[in-house]
Amino acid sequence: MHDKDDNVIYVGKAKNLYNRVRSYFRVMNNRTLKIERMISLIDHFEYIVVDSELEAFVLENNLIKEYSPKYNTLLKDSKTYPYLKISTDEEYPRISSVRRIGRDKARYFGPYASGQAVKEIIDFLNATFKLRTCNRAVSFGTKADRPCLEYHLNRCVGPCLGTVSVEEYRKNVESAIDFVNGNDKSLIRELKEKMQKASDEMDFEEAIRLRELLECAARISERQKISDNLSFDDKDIIAEAHDESDAVIQVFFVREGKMIGREHHHIDDIEGMESSEIVAEFVKRYYSGTPYIPSQIMLSCDIEEREITAKWLSGLRKGACKIIVPKIGDKEKLVELAQKNANLVLKQDKERIINEEKKSKGALKEIADLLGFEDLNRLEAFDISNTNGFQNVGSMVVFEGGKPVKGAYRKFKIKSVEGPDDYSCMYEVLSRRFIHGFEERKTLVQKDLDEEYSSFARFPDLILMDGGKGQVNVALKVLDELKLNIPVCGMVKDDNHRTRGLYVDGKEIPIEKRSEGFKLITRIQDEAHRFAIEFHKSLREKDQVHSIFDDIPGIGDKRRRMLMRSFDSIDEVKNATAEEIALRTDFPINVATSVYEFFHKNDE
Questions:
Q1: Rounded CA gap, 321 and 137, in Å?
Q2: What would the CATH number be for the domain defined by 1-78?
Q3: Model pLDDT for residues 159-199, shown as the tens digit of each residue
Q4: I need a surface site. Which of 41, 162, 253, 503 has the fewest CB within 10 A?
């Protein structure tokens, strides 16, 4: 459930979403004030379809931990779900239950819905494959004083006796891993045959035991795709669904092995395009603007120039980024789940999504018509923030298709202006923005790439200035010096600092305040203002957090922290000799001497 500001206020799951959601809007007398308040804040719903109750269970947990919704009961103990751990890094591996996944060479499976289920699975695997449960240091050829009870109960092959080869034991381990991985048909068939045989022989106690093992095997075989903590890699899963004229792209976000959310994007005018073309175009557009690129991107279909695209993404990420099209296994099932949701969105939400797209594009068209332009897509807005001329900063925000492209936002720390001179600051910001754009264009030409592979190299269709005539003239001066022909528009404010019209070509044009175009202009102006203020605030806070150790030559962040850990107070550092400082901090003697001399430079 989302509120009007798109904040997640509640996450829930249900077999029948229709009945679950309807229940909140029935007339009921026994609802708590908390629920009534939550209902009053609901603006819209978002839902994700999964394949099993366990997947819904785990996804609900992931999303609650990610968004901390106000109206969910939040756990304070950071409880996590249990996993099976097979210690394949040991000579004779064991199976155990853990709540955290370590970065080691062991194999992990899960998560599972309850600790009891994991206990039953461990008991089943140990009994079936006769793996050891003790934590003795076991190695081939080394015999313990005596084997434990598990060996005598024929539940362990007894590697502690030193007679079981590693290869023989490993076969049992691999069989257990195969079973947990889902290769369970032959074993289940064997258990069913034994159960039937026991029943025919009227050995009902054994038949019941085997039936319980079969039920346990069914729990093990229940797979889910919502968490993939077997891998710590971040992934985006992208799937596409389309009809004759429109397409929906579904993006699932997996971070540190957990699916934490999703987005869907509507694309129109795709007539005659194949799925591979739609996905390829989306990948280029989406990741040229997104602020984060994961180490792996999984697609529902292959795309042309996959290797080149992966190389480009690796360059943006400044680290390896793989693009894969899974065909089998859990990864393929996760892509299939994204595909299912894309089809669902296309079918049921198409009208709503199209209306939202028309709303943003309609607003752009209103602005274009108002200013006498044929078409508009990319808008850039700029703002300056300072405190009486202190810490001058500038902001650049980008909107494309009426929506913010936050990955293309840029911050500028003013270098050439001292004091409160917004016009000079804006001149520097705009000059740096377009000079940098020219430099990036040269680089792209050298590498034979399109402008879409860069943010600065893509120039706007319209520049929006947070002010009237003065700010517009500054922008026009910069553009004239750089021989650029880009329209500039000022956002003129009234006495209450609210936009009342647009300044263009030397005249003010009024704009209807209830129009979608006016609302878009206001959103852009507010965003440029917010982005500049946040940057300015972060710099102010950074200046306020200052230590006297920062002024000592040769002392950076790491050595400053070492000094603060090694001494209880600044006075203690002052009273220490250079040798004592070096001994307690492990600094080189010349650095310790620098610290000593800093505090004693005025001594006689």
A1: 41
A2: 3.40.1440.10
A3: 887 778 888 888 888 888 877 766 667 777 887 888 888 88
A4: 162
Q: For the chain, where do the domains classified as CATH 3.30.420.10 start and end?
A: 235-347
- Angstrom distance (rounded) from CA 59 to CA 200: 44
pLDDT at 107: 81
Q: Which two tokens stand for residue 424?
A: 């000079």
Q: In the chain, list all ranges with CATH 1.10.150.
A: 548-600
Judged against a pLDDT cut of 90, whether residue 290 lies above it is answered with no
Is 594 buried (19+), middle (13-18) or exposed (0-12) by CB count in 10 A? middle
Dump pLDDT digits (tens) for 493-505: 776 667 788 888 8
pTM for the predicted model, two decimal places: 0.42
Domain spanning 235-347, CATH architecture: 2-Layer Sandwich (3.30)
Question: Coil, helix or strand for 422?
Answer: helix
Local structure of 294: helix, strand or coil: coil
How many beta carbons lie within 10 A of that of residue 193, not counting itself? 11
Q: pLDDT tens digits, residue range 245-255? A: 778 888 888 87
| Contact assessment for residue 81 and residue 61, using Cβ atoms and an 8 Å cutoff | yes
Cα separations (Å) of 513 from 467, 468, 510, 516?
18, 18, 9, 8
d(CA 531, CA 512): 26
Residue type, 208: I
Q: What is the mean pLDDT of residues 99-127?
A: 74
SS3 category, 484: coil
- H/E stretch holding 25 reads none
Q: Domain 360-542 is classified in which CATH homologous superfamily?
A: UvrC, RNAse H endonuclease domain (3.30.420.340)
44 beta partners: 2
Q: How far apart are CA 583 and CA 423, in angstroms?
A: 54
Residues 392 and 425: beta-carbon distance below 8 Å: yes
The pLDDT of residue 346:
82
Q: What is the 3-state secondary structure (H, E, C) of 518-553?
A: HHHHHHHHHHHHHHHHHHHHHHHHHHHCCCHHHHCC
Q: Return all residues near 162 (Cβ < 8 A) that are at least 6 apart.
A: 139, 140, 141, 142, 143, 144
CA 298 vs. chain centroid, Å, equals 15
State the CATH architecture for 548-600: Orthogonal Bundle (1.10)
Give the C-alpha separation, 330 to 225, whole Å.
7
Residues above pLDDT 70, as percent of the chain? 85
| Residues 454, 407 contacting (CB under 8 angstroms) | no
Q: Where are the beta strands (DSSP E) in 99-193?
A: 107-109
Residue range(s) in the chain whose domain bears CATH number 3.40.1440.10? 1-78
